[in-house]
């Protein structure tokens, strides 16, 4: 098949990338369409998933509570926080006379939540998740318009960074393959041969 009849994917990448960046602030609909088009130009295994729940799951990294006694780390999702009634007159200084506590699974000692060291793992920047949330939706009102523009711009750049990373990965993966899949018999060299003769 002649090369000219094949779709020019490289040109489409450039065109949609430029349109996405040019429209981030002014035309969100064109920006979204361009980003989705960029994503669809990638082979399926390189595409960015658009899923808010999956995005939140990937960012919901481990948060641990450190026991004040044995220094064991416990996942915050696994600890059971209870209200402990404080004796008078100490209870008068606390909100409602209660203090939040939890029990360490390892040493079984009671920890005050107020004094607990919480350790949260934060993803190292730049982090690439291969998933982005759905774009933000504009609501009525002046305050929302300002917030929406800020949220949209952040979302669009996040999506573009993810797509660019996948485009680079796709290029790298195919660059390494080199010419192994290229069939040199498809090249028409008739014109060059006539000029030499």
Q: In a nutshell, what does this entry contain?
A:
Helix content is 40%, strand content 14%.
Structure explained in plain terms:
The protein has five helices and eight strands. The chain has a three-stranded antiparallel sheet, with no helix packed on it. A three-stranded antiparallel sheet has the order 4-5-6, with no helix packed on it. The model has no long low-confidence stretch (mean pLDDT 83). The protein is elongated. The protein has a domain of 58 residues. The chain is α+β, with helices and mostly antiparallel strands and 197 residues long. 40% of the residues lie in helices and 14% in strands. β5 and β6 form a beta hairpin.
Based on Cα principal axes, name the global outline: elongated
Q: How far apart lie the N and C ends?
A: 26 Å
Whole-number mean pLDDT: 83
Number of strands: 8
What is the chain-wise order of helices and strands? HHEHEEEEEEEHH
Number of helices: 5
Strand order of the largest sheet: 3-2-7
Helix content: 40-55%
Largest sheet entry? 3 strands, antiparallel
Structural class by SSE content: alpha+beta
Radius of gyration: 28 Å
Strand content: 5-15%
The poorly predicted ranges are none
How would the blueprint of this fold be written?
Blueprint lengths: L8 H14 L5 H14 L7 E2 L1 H8 L3 E4 L6 E3 L6 E4 L12 E6 L6 E3 L4 E4 L10 E2 L9 H36 L12 H7 L1
Parallel strand pairs: 1-8
Antiparallel strand pairs: 2-3, 2-7, 4-5, 5-6
Helix pairs in contact: 1-2, 2-4
């Amino acid at each position: 098949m002649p090369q000219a009849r094949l779709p020019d994917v490289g040109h489409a990448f450039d065109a949609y990338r430029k349109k996405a960046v040019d429209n981030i602030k002014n035309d969100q609909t064109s920006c979204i369409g361009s980003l989705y088009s960029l994503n669809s130009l990638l082979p399926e295994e390189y595409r960015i998933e658009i899923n808010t729940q999956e995005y939140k799951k990937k960012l919901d990294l481990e948060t641990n509570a450190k026991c004040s006694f044995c220094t064991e780390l416990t996942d915050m999702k696994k600890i059971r926080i209870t209200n402990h009634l404080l004796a008078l007159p100490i209870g008068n200084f606390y909100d409602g006379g209660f203090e939040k506590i939890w029990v360490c699974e390892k040493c079984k000692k009671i920890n005050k939540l107020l004094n607990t060291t919480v350790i949260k793992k934060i993803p190292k920047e730049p982090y690439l998740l291969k998933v982005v949330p759905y774009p933000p939706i504009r609501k009525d009102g002046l305050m929302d318009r300002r917030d929406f523009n800020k949220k949209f711009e952040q979302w669009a750049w996040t999506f573009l960074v993810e797509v660019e990373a996948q485009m680079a990965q796709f290029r790298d993966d195919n660059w390494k393959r080199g010419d192994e899949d290229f069939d040199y018999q498809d090249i028409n060299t008739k014109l060059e041969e006539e000029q030499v003769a």
